[in-house]
Design a protein that fits this description.
The protein is an alpha/beta fold. About 40% of the residues lie in helices and about 20% in strands. A 5-stranded parallel sheet has the order 2-1-3-4-5. The two termini are about 10 Å apart. The N terminus is likely disordered.
Length: about 130
C-alpha cells in the first residue's frame, strides 16, 4: 500500500463536474491526503486497474459521462482494488441507493453537501488504515 505524507492516503476523485472535483480534491488535500482527479468513470477504472493498491479511497459521482459511478463500482469489484468508496451525487433514488449498498458502498453524500460532511466521511474512511 502506497502512502503519501506522514498519515496521508491516496484518494481518487471521479466527477465530471470539474469545479466539484476541484473542491473535493482541495478538501481531501487540506486533510493531509493526496488526491488525483479524473472526469469520468472509464478513466477512473483504467487508472485504478493500473495500480489497484495505490488508492485507498475512491470518491465518485454517480451521473458521469462514459461510465456512471454505479458501473464503475461494479467493474471495480472485478479488480484487485480493495479501497473504500464514497459516492457523491445529486441524482438519487432508493433503488440506486440499494444498488450501491449491494456492492458494498456504505457512504453516500447527496449534492449539495456540506464540506464538514465530506470531511467527516473521509475521516471515517481513513480511520480504517494504520497510521
Amino acid at each position: 500500500m502506497f502512502m503519501t505524507m506522514a498519515n496521508g492516503l491516496n484518494v481518487m476523485v471521479a466527477d465530471d463536474e470539474k469545479p466539484m472535483a476541484e473542491i473535493i480534491s482541495a478538501v481531501v488535500e487540506q486533510m493531509g491526503h493526496s488526491a488525483d482527479i479524473v472526469h469520468d468513470g472509464e478513466n477512473a477504472l483504467v487508472r485504478i486497474k493500473e495500480t489497484p493498491d495505490h488508492y485507498q479511497i475512491l470518491i465518485t459521482d454517480h451521473a458521469m459521462i462514459r461510465m456512471n459511478g454505479l458501473k464503475l463500482v461494479e467493474n471495480l469489484k472485478q479488480t484487485a482494488f480493495r479501497g473504500k468508496i464514497l459516492v457523491v451525487t445529486g441524482y438519487w433514488t432508493l433503488q440506486l441507493e440499494d444498488s450501491y449498498h449491494s456492492l458494498g458502498v456504505t457512504t453516500i453524500l447527496r449534492k449539495p453537501f456540506k464540506i464538514d460532511d465530506l470531511r467527516a466521511a473521509v475521516r471515517v474512511m481513513a480511520s480504517g488504515y494504520a497510521k
